[in-house]
Known about the structure:
The chain is α+β, with helices and mostly antiparallel strands. Helix content is about 40%, strand content about 20%. The chain has helices at about 20-40, 55, 75-85, 100-110, 155-170, 185-195, 200-210, 210-215, 215-225, 230-240, 245-260, 265-280, 330-335, 350-355, 380-395, 405-415, 425-430, 455-460; strands at about 45, 50, 70, 95, 120, 125, 140-150, 175-185, 290, 305-310, 320-325, 340-345, 370-375, 400, 420-425, 435-440, 445-450. The strands form 3 sheets. Strands 1, 5, 6, 7, 8, 9, 10, 11 and 12 form a 9-stranded mixed beta sheet that branches. Strands 14-13-15-16-17 form a 5-stranded mixed beta sheet.
Amino acid sequence: MAKGxxxxxxxxxxxxxxxxSEKRLELYLLDIxxxxxxxxxxxxxxxxxxxxxxxxxxxGNQGDNIIYGIDPILPPNRQAERDKSGETGSxxxxxxxxxxxxxxxxxxxxxxxxxxxxxxxQTDVVFRGERAKDGRFRQFxxxxxxxxxxxxxxLLYDAQMPAIITEIFEAINIGDFLxxxxxxxxxxxxxxxxxxxxxxxxxxxxxxxxxxxIGESKxxxxxxxxxxxxxxxxxxxxFIKIDGSVDEVLDKLKHLAQNLPETEQLSLGVxxxxxxxxxxxxxxxxxxxxxxxxxxxxxxxxYTGTVYETILLGHEALGSICSGGRYEELVGVxxxxxxxxxxxxxxxxxxxxxxxxxxxxxxxxxTPAQVMVVNMQEDLMPTYLxxxxxxxxxxxxxxTNFEKRPLGKQFQLADKQGIQFCxxxxxxxxxxxxxxxxxxxxxxQVEVLLENLAEEVKRRLT
Length: 462
């Protein structure tokens, strides 16, 4: 770069940057999510942001179009050495686009160090090379939990997922939401009973999963393009639109399983679904928080059983705010043994962006400080420092104003940062071991003994 050239320091498209008030909201939500995850015994891990490309592509090509490959920018002499050595693509690396495939590699790498079933959570940043647009980012934070077992995994782990989703979103207090539950075996079994060929089922499930985005008519067209007859396409639409209460849907599915041909897989899916629903109820999840929705399929190929999508009622256009499901073969790609798992994911960056724009959430104050000790006169700074430390030791967040400014300006500075209280100590107050406590929200100002200051601030904060 030539001297004097201007550097474009704007953020790259699709890579978010947070103001303090936004970052504090993210940390607040992360703390809620972490507490709920840990209350169910999930333990934190972190996997590298960079994985070998062959690891990320291990479960087929579903992520190829969104994977960010990386290559070091070497100085000319080292680049020449690299070119001469003829390094192959076996060392190609890329940024992880989700947490699940890296989890599988993590388990394979640490198999003998882990206890199974292994329940972990991650709140890492992931990267996707998709087109950046409103509410869609190329870098975003995902909050994931998964339970992975060797050979067999109880369906009660599947039942825990809606309970966890419910606790998180009720704690965040974002309004009414609905967890839509299905089982991929139900869909696969129904397609088989319809005489649809095995090689067509995967694409049919993918098409069904787009129903809300493209509509019923387009789903029919796409099914027919896959070689499905118009009559079969209509029956598929009628099947995925089965509705009613959870028990009514289960009864309708059982009836179909008894009356259609070749329904072994359909019956298995219904039985699994019934077991999960019973577990969800036993965990105390309210009936209005979940339903069975046969159109939910989840687009990723590795899901094999229970699947979930969560929507915010009244704001369905926001899309799924938490999703996931059960997989049977993902970890086996690396180990050659059956290691079933189930998990859910919250795309937190996307969720915050959507909820802020919809006015469902608000950012927090720019600072965590609850009190500002104002600077009335420089010679009292030792007193200000002692008072500030006394408040901090009582669990109160404090900013000490080291710069001498007019009192009104200091009040404005505190108010701009969302600080509610200012502690005012002049020479008279210091001599009497008192302070004035000003509430910037109400305008009220009271006199408080310094020995009682922390207790008074705490009382007014609650």
